[in-house]
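My current task is to audit a protein record that another person submitted. Thanks in advance; the entry in question is below:
***
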Amino acid sequence: MTDTRFADLLERVMGLSAASIGPGAIERAVDARRRETGLRDGDAYWALLQASSAEVQQLIEAVVVPETWFFRNPQAFRAMERDVLGPRLRADPQAGARLLSLPCSTGEEAYTMAMALMEGGIEPHRFSIEAVDISQHAIDMARAGCYGRNSFRGHELAFRDRYFDARPHGWAVRDEVRAPVRFAQGNIFAPGFMAQAGGFDVIFCRNMLIYFDIPRQKQAIAVLRRLLAPDGTLFVGHSEAGLMRAEGFVSAGMAMAFAFRRAPEAAALRAPAGPTATVAPPPRASLRAPVAKRPAALRVIERVRPTCPETTRSIAKTLDLAALRRMADDGRVEEAERGAQTYIRENGASPDALLLLGLISDAAGQGKAAAHYYRKVLYLDPGNVEALGHLALLLRREGDHAGARLIDERMRRQDGRRN
């Protein structure tokens, strides 16, 4: 019989779902720590874990494998400076900004946030960055601020000369980049986590939620919602975009940045992401939040005024796909769906049109239809990160964690190619 004690412990302590990384990864970490402590078997190591919080932390360290680099997914950092903080800080010389990197891993993301703002002409004393990670080892490395070749990827490395000093074994972050960043060890599931630290203008929380099961995702998102200022912006990973919509956040409309904002209070009603949950749908169906499961594929719960074929053809001809997507976001879901289908009939299949149909199906709880459309998008455009992200989240919701991990790996390869 498989010993699940260790996986259950890690799930309780840090929210880690064994299915998200594979049970083998936890088994290897447990075996490595058991041998390190000189214990003879799993029972002896389990007894040690029950008696030592320090050893629990060491097991967490063994499971957490950082995978990050400077300016990873640069679109997010550009959007943060260009569209979110830069305009406000340049317009008001007295204004400041508070940012959060969670999890911050070994510090590359937090320092990149500082460099991105400095590149936009924002002086370091005008912003502060809190950087938190569950791994004390990662925090120690971040504070040391010296990085090897693996932290610098891609071809655009001019920033290294501007913000780092060469050392015998790597590159050290300069003091002006360090100054606004403060690192701390912390666990988002700990009682009272950052209880007095709300009101962040920007939060980067990328590729953490995908490692949690649905209840823990909801718990973590509730913490993020509390920490985010009412007009703040939350940046997440590719795979997490659909989850944020499902939890009542709305897209900030920044291409490839995966940026979200809290929904207006009037739109706070939302359906849980779980497939078996039942709640009343919002007054108007929208891609911003899922609605109750519809009885047949490509139909929506909300009945809108019938649209005649001539009107549908007119919509498809006169509106581009971006307009059709806005139409869906505004609650005119059935019109947007018919417009996209007509667009495909008259212009041929395109990744954007198929993606829109996938999002509509996904929002209405039609997982099979949504997966069908997402896979069609990827057939035409294998690197479409939005389709990859939504498909990975859909697979996780349906329990196919192995399939979701394969999609995650595809997205990581895409990250490496873009950087």
Summary: Residues 5-11+21-63 form one domain.
